[in-house]
Amino acid sequence: MLKRKTVNSIFILGLIVLVGLSFFLSFPWYIFLLVGFIWFLLTLFGSFFVRWNYHLVSLHSNKSTTKNEVAITFDDGPNSQYTPMALELLKKYDARATFFCIGKHIEKHPELFKQIIREGHTVGNHTFSHDNTFGFYGTSKVAHELSKSIDLVEKLVGLKMRLYRPAFGVTNPSIAEAVNKLGLISIGWNVRSLDTTPRNEKMVLKRITTRTNRGDIILLHDTSAKSIAVLERLLLFLKEKNLKSVTVDQLLELKAYV
């Protein structure tokens, strides 16, 4: 996978070579512009495609597992309307999941958050505010956002979260530095449902079921009726395929809390 430092080193070296050669050969000016544009595109796509591990290494699956397990993960909750529905379905099918919660939603629904943990699911950090401009925050502001959620959860249930799900799937040098400083583990996915897009229930379910295999991490959201409908059909599919949904820390064999 592409790494930011590697790409930057290659492009800096390339520019040095081009500048050196320009003393002996004639290059059109737009060659330098083209090199800069390619670097910009790689950095931009690396920021938005979490699976590239461009700025920050995230864990996306466990393909080495010998167990028939997958991990269903939910982002953006807890939601007072839909999270209880998700919990009811998970209980019905004896499944476990991981909820990457937004701090301000935990603050608003503390008892629902406690219920998630009480029923055997794992919780992780999805920032405190999930602000639309989160990708433009500096390192200290990112760290403050993450720490605020960590402190809130520790005060509420006595657990210090280690798992972080990048907001909007966006990473950059500031986010990477803050995550590393706080000693967090970034969790990505390799099966993205796209349940927050205009795709209908059937399309979302097909997208998941045609991609899901042992060791995969599935991304859903506990924020809509469509996602809940998809969840029930997904749990039936997993049962038919003899795949069990476990928490992401169990799938990846790591500790979710300090």
Automatic annotation (TrEMBL):
Q: Which InterPro entries does the record cross-reference, listed alphabetically?
A: Glyco_hydro/deAcase_b/a-brl (IPR011330), NODB_dom (IPR002509), Polysacc_deacetylase_ArnD (IPR050248)
Which parts of the chain span the membrane according to its record? 7-25, 31-54
Molecular function terms from GO: hydrolase activity
What is this enzyme's EC?
Answer: 3.-.-.-
Which superkingdom is the protein from? Bacteria
- Is Membrane given among the entry's keywords? yes
Keywords attached to this Swiss-Prot or TrEMBL record, sorted alphabetically, are: Hydrolase, Membrane, Transmembrane, Transmembrane helix
Asked if Iron is a keyword of the record, the answer is no
One Pfam family matching this protein: Polysacc_deac_1
Q: Which PROSITE patterns match?
A: NODB
The record ties this protein, via CDD domains, to:
CE4_NodB_like_6s_7s
Q: Where is the NodB homology domain?
A: 68-246
Name used for this protein in its record: Polysaccharide deacetylase family protein
Q: Which organism is it from?
A: Maribacter cobaltidurans
